[in-house]
Amino acid sequence: MKRKMFAALALSATLAMGTIVPAFAVEVPGKDVAVDNGENALKQDESDKAIGSTTLSVKTYATNIQATIPLSMTVAGPAEGGALKTPDNYVIKNGSVYGIDVNVKADMTDSKLALLSDSTASSSADADKININLKPATVGTAFALKTAESTPWTIGAKTTSDTECKIEVSGSVSKTGQTVGVPITAMKLVYTIAPAAPATPAAQ
């Protein structure tokens, strides 16, 4: 079972950078068990006995996904448009005893900006647009944030402490027409986290 986690991304029109605030954890319950009570009639054989079988299958399940993400992040860009200044301590932590697969997408529902998913926002004619790129430490190249889920990346299992995955954030913004120094909501980063396959617990 997957669970979604939300992190807000706010845009400031100043050059000041925000810091990451305390994160939170999400737990995933176990899976259901079942019995198939379909007919499996037993018939007496020549030894005056009736012999049959029930197939028993066993599966493992993720007992406790523990992952933390930042609650918010502030990036900043020039009022006339241009490259964003971003924090360098954006981290997702895996506290699970197995690896996790992470997907992310942008929720623009409450945004005052439009998302450019495959090009760069500029200071030209386009206004009120933003482009965000993410590069997790376990991924070779950066990818543009879109409203559709990203290709998942894996964060390794916890061993003696949580496994951290640092994410490089970059991007640009066009001129916004917003009041300088007043943050506006740009988007929410929606994370979906699931056990990596196979979900084999790491040695503790």
Summarize the topology.
Layout: E1 3-12, E2 67-68, E3 72-76, E4 81-83, E5 91-94, E6 100-107, E7 114-115, E8 129-136, E9 143-144, E10 153-155, E11 163-174, E12 184-195
Parallel strand pairs: 1-3, 7-8
Antiparallel strand pairs: 1-12, 2-5, 4-11, 5-11, 6-10, 6-12, 8-9, 8-11
Task: Describe the fold and architecture.
- By secondary structure, the protein is mostly beta strands.
- The chain is 0% helix and 35% strand.
- It contains no helices and 12 strands.
- The chain has strands at residues 3-12, 67-68, 72-76, 81-83, 91-94, 100-107, 114-115, 129-136, 143-144, 153-155, 163-174, 184-195.
- Strands 2, 4, 5, 7, 8, 9 and 11 form a 7-stranded mixed β-sheet that branches. A 5-stranded mixed β-sheet has the order 3-1-12-6-10, with no helix packed on it.
- Strand 8 and strand 9 form a beta hairpin.
- The chain is elongated, with a radius of gyration of 24 Å.
- The two termini are 24 Å apart.
- Residues 6-10 and 12-30 have low confidence and may be disordered.
Structural class computed from helices and strand pairing: mainly beta
Tally the helices.
0
- Encode the helix/strand succession as letters: EEEEEEEEEEEE
Helix content: under 10%
Our estimate of the beta-strand percent is 25-35%
